[in-house]
Task: inverse folding
C-alpha cells in the first residue's frame, strides 16, 4: 500500500539502534547465524508445550490455525491485490469437512484433511471464476456473500452438519502410544508441523517464477499479459490455494476444539482473519503469524467488561493501521531495516572520511 | 396461481427494501467509484436514530426525517474523517479504502449495542400497519404497497435531483470526470462528501423499511448482501438498475425459497449469491450498467 | 472591469520563480512570465519542456512553489475550483470531456459558478450558433463525439464560466490540420469579441503565433526566449526549432 511519508523520525532512530546492534552482534558468517536462528526457533517451538499449561498451548494451537488461514488471505491480497471477506467460510468448510468425514464416515485424519483442503480449493476457484471476465476488487463482493451464506447453509443442512446444535468430532485425535505426549501437546505439534509445510510451500511459491508473475499481474495486468503470463489461470490457482490454506487452518482447528457449530463460522471469523493480515502486513510471509498472535492473544487477556468492545477495537485497529502503518507490523520492521541500512551506509561513509582525512 | 402471486407480492416487498439499500450503494459507486461495505451498518445506525426520535414522542414520519438527517451527517462525517484522507494517500489503490469501509462495518456493528439506546432489541412500529387487501386471490399487505410507493418516490426524488438540479449535475460531473469538474469550479471534495451523505440518508429509509418487529445491530447484515446482489444485477452505475435489480432479486429469491425444497426459507440468500456469481461471470456491467465494473 | 489597481491595470497574470514537478522529478525551474488583459500569449516548447506542467501549476492542479498572481492577488495554493470562481478557466490536455454527460449538460456544468439562469441559457444557445455541430448533438453523450467536436466542447465549456483568462493546453492535439486552423480562428474571434485573455501552449507554433500577441519559448522548465509573435517568427533559432523552416 502506498502512502508512506518520507519523514523518518521514529523509524530513523530505531533504524540507527538496529544498525548498532547488528554490527555489535555480528559473529560468524551469515549462513551460520541464520542456521542458529532457525534452530533456536525450532527448539523454542518444541519447548513451549513442555513448559506452559494446557490453556496456553491450546491458545497457541488456535493462533497457528488462524495464521495458516491468514497466510492464505495474505497470499491472495498481497500477490493479486484482491481482498476476501469470506475466508472464514473456507475455514468453516475445512472444519466441517474434516468433522463429517471422521465422525460420520469413519475416515482417517490424514485422508479427511486432504479432502478438506481439496474441497476448500475447489470452492475458492469457483468463487474466483469472475476473474475470467473482470478485474478489480469484485472478490470482496462475492466473498461477502459467501461469508453470510455459510452459517445459513450449515443450519439448513443440519442433518449433515448438526446445525446450531453443533457436531462433535469423534473419535478425537490421540497421541501415538508410548509417545508420552498429552492430547494438547500432540495436537500442537501436529498443527505446527502442518503449518511449517504450508509456510515453506507459500514461501517457495512466491519466490518462484509463478510468484514473480503474480506480482507482475498485481502491478500491471497488461504488461504481465504481454510477458506471457496466463493471467486467469494463475489468478484462479491463487484463489484456490488461498482458500485451501484457510480450509487447512479450519480443519486443524477442530482437532483441538473437537466441536463445530454454525455460530463459530459467522462473518466475524472472516474479519478476524482479515484483521490478522492487516496487522501483520500485507504481502509478507511472517506477517500472518504476528497478526494471528495479536488477534488471538490480545483479546483473551482483556478484562471481562472490555470483552464486549472487541469488535470495536478490531475496527479501530483496521482503520488505524491503514492510516498509521499501511504495511502492518512487517511493514514497520522493513522500514526500520531500511533505515538501519541507510545508517550503516552513512557510518561506512563517515569512516572512509576519517581515514582519508 | 394465487400462491405464486402471493409469494411474488412478498418478494416485491423484500425486493423494494433491497432496492432502497442498493440505491445507496449505487450513489456511492457513481460519485466515488467505491463499494461501501459499511452502507448497511450506517443504515442500521441511523434507524436507531429514527427509533430514538420515535420513542421520544415524534410521529413516525417526523422521526424518519430526523433519522435521514442523522444518516446524512453520519455518511458525510465518514467521508470527511476516514475515506477522504485515505483516498488522498492511497493514490488510486482502492484496497485501503475498502479495508476502511470494512472497519467501519465492524465498528458500527460493534458500537451500536454499546450506545446509550441499550443492548436489547428496540421495539419499532411496523411501517404502514398490518392491514391488507385481496388481489387476484392473493393477499397484498398495506406494508407491501407502502414500501413500493416509498421506493417509487425515492426514484422520483433521485431523478429530479440528478437530472433537474445544479447540485445533481455537479455530482454527476464529479462522478464522470473529477478533474474537469474541478476546472469548471466545482468543489470536488465537497461533492464527494454530499454523495456519501446522500447515500447514507437514503440508506436510512432502507433501514426503516426493513424493520421486522424491532431494531438491533443485525438489522442490515442480510439486506446488505441482497442489496449488493441487486446492484450487481442492475449495474453499479444505474439507480434504475438498482431498483429493477432489487425487485428481481427479492421476487426471485422468495420464489426459489418457496418452490425449491433444497433452498427453503433458511437459504434465501443462496439464489441471490448465485445471481451475483452469474452476473459477474456473464454480464459484469449488469443489466443497465454502461461501464465495465473495474474498480469494484 | 477586472483589475482594480491603476498601476497593474493591464497585467492579468504574473508568474514568478515557479517551481513544480511530479514527486522527485522537478519539471519547472524558476519559471516567470506574464499575460496582460485581453491578450493572447503562446508558450512554445518541445515535448517534455514543461508546457502542460506550467498550466497545471498555474491553475492549481499541481502543487508548486514560487508566485502566481492573478488579478493582482497571490493565488498559489488555491484549488482549481476556487481559481475558476476568480475567473480562470483551464482546458486540460486531452479535452477533459465529461463523457457521461450530454453536450448540453457539459455546457451547463461549465456555468457552475454562475447563477444567472436566463443568461446561462442564452450563452448555451450562442455556443450552438458558434459551433453548430454541438447544437446538433446537444442531447448526445459527449464522449461519443469526434476529437475535434470534443475540443470545441471543451473550449465552450470553459468559456461558459465567462472567464477573464482562458488556459488552453495543446488544443491542436490529435486534430486534422483543417480543424486545427478553424479552431484557432475561433479562439481569435472569442478573444476579439469578448476580450478574454488566452494563454495557450502549443506544439503547432506557426498557427499559435499567427493569433498570439506575444510568446515564450520554454526549454527544460525555463524560459529560453520571449518576444512579440512577430519577433519570434523571425528569430532564427525559434524558426529552426519550432517552425520547421
Result:
Amino acid at each position: 500500500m502506498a502512502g508512506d511519508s518520507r519523514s523518518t523520525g521514529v523509524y530513523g532512530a530505531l533504524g540507527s539502534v538496529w544498525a548498532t546492534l547488528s554490527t555489535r552482534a555480528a559473529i560468524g558468517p551469515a549462513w551460520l547465524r541464520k542456521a542458529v536462528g532457525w534452530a533456536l526457533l525450532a527448539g523454542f517451538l518444541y519447548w513451549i508445550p513442555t513448559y506452559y499449561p494446557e490453556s496456553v498451548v491450546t491458545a497457541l494451537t488456535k493462533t497457528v490455525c488462524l495464521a495458516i488461514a491468514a497466510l492464505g488471505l495474505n497470499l491472495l491480497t498481497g500477490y493479486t491485490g484482491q481482498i476476501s471477506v469470506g475466508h472464514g467460510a473456507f475455514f468453516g468448510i475445512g472444519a466441517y469437512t474434516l468433522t463429517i468425514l471422521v465422525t460420520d464416515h469413519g475416515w482417517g485424519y490424514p485422508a479427511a484433511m486432504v479432502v478438506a483442503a481439496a474441497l476448500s480449493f475447489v470452492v475458492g476457484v469457483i468463487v474466483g471464476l469472475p476473474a475470467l471476465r473482470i478485474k478489480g476488487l469484485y472478490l470482496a463482493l462475492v466473498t461477502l456473500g459467501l461469508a453470510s451464506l455459510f452459517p445459513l447453509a450449515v443450519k439448513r443442512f443440519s442433518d449433515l452438519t448438526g446445525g446450531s446444535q453443533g457436531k462433535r468430532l469423534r473419535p478425537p485425535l490421540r497421541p501415538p502410544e508410548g509417545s508420552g505426549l498429552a492430547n494438547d501437546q500432540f495436537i500442537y505439534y501436529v498443527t505446527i508441523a502442518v503449518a511449517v509445510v504450508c509456510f515453506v510451500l507459500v514461501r517457495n511459491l512466491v519466490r518462484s517464477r509463478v510468484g514473480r508473475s503474480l506480482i507482475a499481474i498485481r502491478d500491471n495486468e497488461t504488461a504481465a499479459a504481454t510477458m506471457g503470463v496466463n493471467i486467469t489461470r494463475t489468478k484462479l490457482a491463487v484463489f484456490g490455494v488461498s482458500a485451501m490454506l484457510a480450509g487447512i487452518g479450519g480443519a486443524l482447528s477442530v482437532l483441538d476444539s473437537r466441536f463445530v457449530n454454525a455460530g463459530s463460522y459467522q462473518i466475524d471469523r472472516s474479519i478476524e482473519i482479515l484483521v490478522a493480515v492487516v496487522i501483520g502486513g500485507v504481502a509478507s510471509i511472517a506477517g500472518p503469524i504476528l497478526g494471528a498472535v495479536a488477534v488471538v492473544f490480545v483479546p483473551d487477556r482483556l478484562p471481562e467488561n472490555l470483552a464486549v468492545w472487541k469488535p470495536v477495537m478490531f475496527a479501530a485497529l483496521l482503520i488505524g493501521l491503514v492510516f498509521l502503518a499501511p504495511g502492518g507490523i512487517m511493514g514497520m520492521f522493513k522500514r526500520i531495516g531500511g533505515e538501519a541500512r541507510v545508517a550503516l551506509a552513512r557510518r561506512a561513509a563517515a569512516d572512509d572520511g576519517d581515514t582519508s582525512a | 396461481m394465487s400462491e405464486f402471486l402471493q409469494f411474488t407480492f412478498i418478494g416485491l416487498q423484500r425486493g423494494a427494501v433491497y432496492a432502497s439499500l442498493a440505491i445507496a450503494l449505487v450513489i456511492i459507486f457513481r460519485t466515488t467509484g467505491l463499494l461501501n461495505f459499511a452502507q448497511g451498518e450506517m443504515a442500521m445506525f441511523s434507524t436507531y436514530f429514527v427509533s430514538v426520535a420515535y420513542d421520544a414522542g415524534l410521529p413516525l414520519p417526523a422521526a424518519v426525517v430526523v433519522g435521514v438527517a442523522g444518516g446524512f451527517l453520519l455518511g458525510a462525517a465518514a467521508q470527511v474523517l476516514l475515506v477522504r484522507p485515505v483516498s488522498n494517500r492511497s493514490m488510486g489503490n482502492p484496497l485501503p479504502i475498502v479495508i476502511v469501509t470494512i472497519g467501519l462495518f465492524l465498528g458500527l456493528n460493534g458500537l451500536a449495542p454499546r450506545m446509550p439506546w441499550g443492548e436489547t432489541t428496540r421495539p419499532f412500529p411496523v411501517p404502514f400497519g398490518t392491514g391488507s387487501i385481496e388481489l387476484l386471490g392473493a393477499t397484498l399487505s398495506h406494508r407491501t404497497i407502502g414500501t413500493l410507493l416509498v421506493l417509487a418516490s425515492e426514484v422520483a426524488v433521485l431523478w429530479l435531483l440528478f437530472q433537474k438540479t445544479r447540485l445533481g449535475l455537479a455530482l454527476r460531473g464529479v462522478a464522470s470526470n473529477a478533474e474537469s469538474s474541478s476546472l469548471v469550479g466545482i468543489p470536488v471534495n465537497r461533492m464527494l462528501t454530499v454523495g456519501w451523505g446522500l447515500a447514507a440518508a437514503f440508506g436510512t429509509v432502507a433501514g426503516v423499511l426493513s424493520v421486522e418487529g424491532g431494531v438491533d445491530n443485525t438489522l442490515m447484515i442480510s439486506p446488505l448482501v441482497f442489496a449488493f446482489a441487486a446492484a450487481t444485477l442492475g449495474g453499479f452505475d444505474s439507480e434504475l438498475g438498482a431498483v429493477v435489480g432489487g425487485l428481481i432479486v427479492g421476487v426471485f429469491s422468495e420464489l426459489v425459497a418457496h418452490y425449491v425444497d433444497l433452498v427453503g426459507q433458511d437459504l434465501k440468500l443462496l439464489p441471490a449469491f448465485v445471481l451475483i456469481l452469474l452476473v459477474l461471470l456473464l454480464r459484469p456491467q449488469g443489466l443497465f450498467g454502461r461501464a465495465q465494473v473495474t474498480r469494484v | 472591469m477586472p483589475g482594480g489597481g491603476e498601476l497593474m491595470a493591464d497585467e492579468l497574470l504574473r508568474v514568478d520563480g515557479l517551481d513544480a514537478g511530479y514527486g522527485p522529478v522537478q519539471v519547472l525551474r524558476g519559471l516567470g512570465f506574464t499575460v496582460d488583459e485581453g491578450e493572447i500569449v503562446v508558450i512554445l516548447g518541445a515535448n517534455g519542456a514543461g508546457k502542460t506542467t506550467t498550466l497545471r501549476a498555474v491553475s492549481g492542479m499541481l502543487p508548486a512553489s514560487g508566485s502566481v498572481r492573478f488579478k493582482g492577488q497571490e493565488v498559489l495554493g488555491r484549488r482549481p475550483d476556487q481559481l475558476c470562481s476568480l475567473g480562470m478557466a483551464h482546458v486540460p490536455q486531452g479535452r477533459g470531456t465529461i463523457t457521461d454527460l450530454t453536450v448540453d449538460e457539459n455546457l451547463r456544468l461549465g456555468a457552475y459558478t454562475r447563477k444567472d439562469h436566463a443568461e446561462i441559457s442564452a450563452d448555451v444557445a450562442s455556443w450552438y450558433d458558434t459551433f453548430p455541430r454541438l447544437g446538433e448533438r446537444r442531447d448526445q453523450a459527449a464522449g461519443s463525439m469526434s476529437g475535434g467536436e470534443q475540443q470545441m466542447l471543451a473550449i465552450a465549456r470553459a468559456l461558459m464560466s465567462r472567464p477573464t483568462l482562458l488556459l488552453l493546453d495543446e488544443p491542436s492535439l490529435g486534430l486534422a490540420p483543417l480543424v486545427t486552423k478553424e479552431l484557432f480562428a475561433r479562439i481569435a474571434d472569442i478573444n476579439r469579441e469578448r476580450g478574454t485573455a488566452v494563454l495557450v501552449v502549443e506544439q503547432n507554433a506557426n498557427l499559435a503565433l499567427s493569433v498570439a500577441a506575444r510568446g515564450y519559448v520554454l526549454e527544460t522548465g525555463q524560459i529560453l526566449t520571449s518576444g512579440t509573435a512577430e519577433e519570434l517568427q523571425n528569430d532564427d533559432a525559434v524558426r529552426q526549432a519550432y517552425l520547421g523552416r
Summary: The longest strand of chain B covers residues 132-135.
